[in-house]
Amino acid sequence: MKHCKMVTVVSFFLKGKDTLATSCINLIIFIVSMEVEMISMAHRMGFLTTPYAFNPDEVAAMAKAGSHIVVAHMGLTTAGSFGAMTATTLDDSVLRVQAIADAAFG
């Protein structure tokens, strides 16, 4: 990797309201804590870190872990072969993105 100009770590585990993993809350908490630790390690190693966050709690944890950029993720779309049964509306997305941004900068 020493020949690379930039290496980015993007984390995206199966979490969020439309995934199979939501049926097991303990698993989600475990996965999120592992993801935060991975971002922290990658940051300490000098990687550019850009994890997804689905809510203010996740973005706060990622910011504390040293993430450079946090992507506010609104969940799956309803189209295509991998489409979800429901999706966040544009109006709800605006509110969620603002809450995530507030937590990131707060």
Automatic annotation (TrEMBL):
<dbReference type="InterPro" id="IPR051353">
    <property type="entry name" value="Tobamovirus_resist_UPF0261"/>
</dbReference>
<dbReference type="Pfam" id="PF09370">
    <property type="entry name" value="PEP_hydrolase"/>
</dbReference>
<dbReference type="InterPro" id="IPR013785">
    <property type="entry name" value="Aldolase_TIM"/>
</dbReference>
<dbReference type="InterPro" id="IPR009215">
    <property type="entry name" value="TIM-br_IGPS-like"/>
</dbReference>
<feature type="transmembrane region" description="Helical">
    <location>
        <begin position="20"/>
        <end position="39"/>
    </location>
</feature>
<keyword id="KW-0812">Transmembrane</keyword>
<keyword id="KW-0472">Membrane</keyword>
<dbReference type="GO" id="GO:0015979">
    <property type="term" value="P:photosynthesis"/>
</dbReference>
<feature type="domain" description="TIM-barrel">
    <location>
        <begin position="33"/>
        <end position="104"/>
    </location>
</feature>
<keyword id="KW-1133">Transmembrane helix</keyword>
<protein>
    <recommendedName>
        <fullName>TIM-barrel domain-containing protein</fullName>
    </recommendedName>
</protein>
<dbReference type="InterPro" id="IPR015813">
    <property type="entry name" value="Pyrv/PenolPyrv_kinase-like_dom"/>
</dbReference>
<dbReference type="GO" id="GO:0003824">
    <property type="term" value="F:catalytic activity"/>
</dbReference>
<keyword id="KW-0602">Photosynthesis</keyword>
